[in-house]
Design brief:
By secondary structure, the protein is mainly alpha-helical. It has 15 helices and no strands. α1 packs across α14, α7 crosses α8 and α12 crosses α14. The radius of gyration is 18 Å and the shape is globular.
Length: 234
């Protein structure tokens, strides 16, 4: 296994996990509900079972649809919307607060679309600003913000718009990414600082002519599917 091979698994991640998004890019940009759903498919998944996150995400989207957010945005009040979410059995307090603060973020943006807004910020070389805004959403922080921005950049082919120093905003560091970087000697086993890990991954991948985004996605893919990959390669 080497850096280029990990990047190839990043392409596999793109083909398997982002294929549906690649087919509806226009809808993601033009439909605020689809854009918000894209973001929620990152922000709801915080270490619990995916099946549980799926249920809460679907319940939240039902409330948003019934509220008719686009036409009733001026009526949106976090405290009242929180009650609606709770009534629809979005039982996790972090989820409800995250949802309300996500809506608050897009409330003042043209189009109410978190995807189109973030894409435009990346294109304008303002990714640091949108990253900071995302990190202020309760329950999001660095890993989910970078996860969202990484997949957004992959789906919309934005890597050419990313300056080298800004790749850190597209590098979610989890157990799998860290372990792959360690096995490839990009970092040593004592390295725990996320920013340092990001910088070393970016430097190592660019020097090999590999996309830091696809390497990151590929490292996650390898870690998540390690047993399948092991047995399939026998």
């Amino acid at each position: 296994m080497n850096i280029k091979r990990v990047g190839e698994y990043g392409q596999r991640y793109k083909d398997e996990f982002l294929i549906s998004d690649l087919g509806v890019k226009a809808q993601l940009l033009g439909d605020w509900h689809e854009g918000l759903n894209f973001f929620f498919r990152k922000s709801f998944y915080r270490g619990r079972k995916d099946e549980i996150s799926d249920v809460f995400r679907e319940r939240a989207l039902e409330v948003i649809q019934e509220f008719d957010l686009r036409n009733n945005i001026r009526k949106f009040k976090p405290s009242e919307f929180n009650k609606l979410l709770k009534q629809n059995r979005v039982n996790n307090r972090v989820d409800r607060r995250m949802i309300c603060q996500s809506i608050e973020l897009i409330k003042g943006k043209g189009g109410l679309n978190i995807v189109s807004y973030s894409v435009e910020q990346i294109k304008k070389d303002e990714v640091a600003g949108v990253y900071d805004e995302l990190c202020k959403i309760y329950g999001v922080a660095d890993k989910i913000a970078t996860f969202f921005l990484r997949d957004l950049a992959i789906v919309f082919g934005l890597e050419g718009k990313i300056d080298e120093q800004d790749y850190i905003y597209f590098q979610p560091i989890d157990t799998w990414v860290r372990q792959v970087a360690e096995r490839l000697k990009i970092i040593d086993e004592r390295e725990n600082n996320a920013d340092t890990i990001k910088e070393k991954i970016i430097s190592a991948t660019l020097s090999e002519g590999v996309s830091p985004l696809l390497f990151n996605a590929g490292a996650w893919y390898i870690g998540k599917h390690s047993f399948d990959l092991l047995f399939n390669n026998e």
